[in-house]
Design goal:
It is a single chain. By secondary structure, the chain is mostly helical. The chain is built from 5 helices and 2 strands; from the N terminus they run αβαααβα. Strands 1-2 form a two-stranded parallel ribbon. Helix 3 runs antiparallel to helix 4 and helix 4 crosses helix 5. The radius of gyration is 32 Å and the shape is rod-shaped.
Length: 166
């Protein structure tokens, strides 16, 4: 009976040890920022966003310049026109100011939305590739190396770049 208890204890300890070994998950890491920064699709997206931003900037600067010119003109002529004309001009200048602020705010929102629309499918493609490479190499977890304090495991960044074709 004592041998049976010992045998059972040894079996339980062995099973526990095997489970502890199996519980150790295989992990690797990937530098997602590096992937995104060097990915051709992302570089093209950045060019599109810069072009759109430049268009918005040009239009904004034109509006501001027009506003400043009108304001200067109205200030110079203020003493030579009637009070009613000055009030009309003041309202016109205030309306222009509001349009400029609205334009700037809308341009920023549209630019952010465009960036989101462009980057989302690229990021999705990167995630799919990371999962594919991670599974092919037998890893259970692939972490983004940006937030890691210690990244001692395998780095799959080069493999994911290869899978993505760059």
């Amino acid at each position: 009976m004592k041998q049976f208890k010992t045998l059972v204890m040894v079996a339980l300890i062995s099973i526990g040890g095997i489970q502890a070994i199996n519980a150790q998950a295989k992990t690797a890491h990937v530098d997602v920022s590096e992937l995104m920064a060097k990915m051709p699709a992302m570089l093209e997206a950045q060019k599109q966003l810069e072009k759109l931003s430049a268009t918005y900037d040009t239009e904004y600067k034109t509006m501001v310049e027009e506003y400043q010119n009108k304001l200067k003109k109205y200030e110079q002529e203020a003493s030579t026109v009637t009070e009613a004309v000055n009030e009309t001009r003041s309202k016109e200048v205030q309306d222009m100011q509001k349009r400029i602020v609205d334009y700037r705010d809308n341009a920023q929102k549209e630019l952010q939305q465009k960036e989101s629309d462009i980057v989302k499918p690229i990021m999705e493609k990167v995630k799919v590739s990371i999962a594919k490479v991670g599974k092919a190499k037998g890893f259970q977890y692939v972490l983004n190396s940006e937030g890691l304090l210690l990244a001692d495991g395998p780095n799959l960044t080069a493999d994911v770049k290869k899978d993505l074709g760059f």
